[in-house]
Design goal:
Layout (H helix, E strand, L loop, with lengths): L6 H6 L4 H9 L6 E7 L2 E6 L10 E3 L4 E3 L10 H11 L5 E3 L5 H62 L3
Parallel strand pairs: 1-5
Antiparallel strand pairs: 1-2, 2-3, 3-4
Helix pairs in contact: 2-3
Length: 165
Amino acid sequence: MEERWSNEHVLSLAPDQASLKAAGKLSAPAPWSDAGWGGGALWGSCKGSGKTPYFPCVDLSGPAYKCTCPSRKFPCKHVLGLLLLWSAGSPAVAEGAVQPEWVAEWLTRRQGAAEQKAVRQQERREAAKDDQAARRRAGQRAARVAAGAQELRLRLADGVRHGLA
């Protein structure tokens, strides 16, 4: 299984002090349910001010974050609170729990995007190799044309010097 991150590492991810302060309030087990970690991910359900809870999750290999809250900060206070709860070793975050479907789907989409990115990068490398080969061939062609033009100048000069007869 993955190693838990240190509290300092989690705190270093915060985008600002306000997020840290808000995450501190969410680092207790009270607002959390269905929290777990395993398979390279961390997830939970956090009771917010509205009637529907927020669903943060973390790809621990990235790290990458996702939350259903409307915050424009990454990671948001819910993700940071969940990470703080997890890094403290709280029993509220079940180790080896079965990933919910929404977490598995998100991880699958991330994996697919990573694979597509790798394919695009490979195609770019191959195109760059093709471009390099094309430039090399163009350089060789230009050298042959220049050599041919030099040869033609020499023959014409010889023809003029010796006469056309």
